[in-house]
Amino acid sequence: MAPEKKRKGSYKRVLLKLSGEALAGKEGHGIDTDILKYLAREIKDVRDQGIQVAIVLGGGNIFRGMKGATQGMDRASADYMGMLATMLNSLALQDALEHIQVFTRVQSAIDMQALAEPYIRRRAIRHLEKNRVVIFGAGTGNPYFTTDTTAALRAMEVGCEVVLKATKVDGVYDSDPTKNPKAVKFDDVTYLEVLNRGLEVMDSTAISLCMDNRLPIIVFNLHEKGALMKVIQGAQIGTLVH
Fold first, then answer.
1. Is the pLDDT of residue 178 over 70?
2. Distance of CA 6 to the CA centre of its chain
């Protein structure tokens, strides 16, 4: 097997974006404890190498605001419910990480002191410097913004070098690879190409934020064991959006 090509350098502080569906397992909803344990081990392996890890989780395995809005709910109310769903996922991942001795802090954009710290940028950076994993919950705290946008925003605020978008496929394709066997995978793609071609990487607000601030995004398959470590070390797997 040919050696994997390397991207430039490796990363020291990263933002890992996980969808809520990534926690759901085969059921398609709820939280699969086996997947939680797997994710926690993958994150621990990276943390143990001195990599500073921040995480943003979606809530689609429990409740999706946009879907609620299309079913007649007020969009703002539906989005707030989605934010609460992200907190359930954040607390579940925190528990899984702390079971394997990874110090973790959950910071919430909505005040809920009994469960999590409030989001404070300088405190989050200090936690990262102390090698604690920081999980940002409750989105931006505002309706109409997705957790993709939260990931881009928080990554820039705390000085992450890259957004790692974990998915169930091994990168970005020109069409859905589960439906089109001839779909072509991109090794790298520009922000403008993603926007102009409507490629399903992150929503347009998140892509625009990353483009304006030159924050790279790497889309990869987290369910491939060791993939997170390889991506951080610079292996050319997945798709680089730059």
1. yes
2. 22
- Residue whose token pair is 């990874």: 102
Taken in order 141, 147, 152, 157, is the CA torsion positive or negative? positive
Q: Listing from the earlier edge strand, what are the strands of the sheet with 217-221?
A: 117-118, 104-108, 133-137, 52-57, 13-18, 162-167, 217-221, 239-241, 188-189
**Bridge-partner residues for 188, per DSSP?**
240
- With H, G, I as helix, E, B as strand and everything else as coil, classify residue 122: helix
Highest-scoring range by mean pLDDT, 60-74, 133-147, 161-175: 133-147
* Under 8 Å between Cβ of 15 and 147: no
Q: Give the distance, in angstroms, between the CA of residue 139 and the centroid of all CA atoms in the same chain.
A: 11
The one-letter amino acid at 124? A
| Half-sphere CA count of 189, side-chain side, radius 13 A | 25
Chain centre distance of CA 178? 21
Helix intervals (H) in the chain: 33-47, 65-70, 75-99, 121-129, 147-157, 191-197, 204-212, 227-233
Q: Determine the Cα–Cα distance for residues 12 and 161; give it in Å rounded to an integer.
A: 7
> What SS3 class is residue 187?
coil
What is the CATH architecture assignment of 13-182+194-241?
3-Layer(aba) Sandwich (3.40)
Other Cβ atoms less than 10 A from the Cβ of 50: the count is 8
Domain-by-domain residue ranges, the chain?
13-182+194-241
Token code pair at residue 7: 């991207």
Place of tokens 């621990």: 44
Q: Which pLDDT score, from 0 to 100, does residue 1 have?
A: 37
- The whole model's pTM is what? 0.90
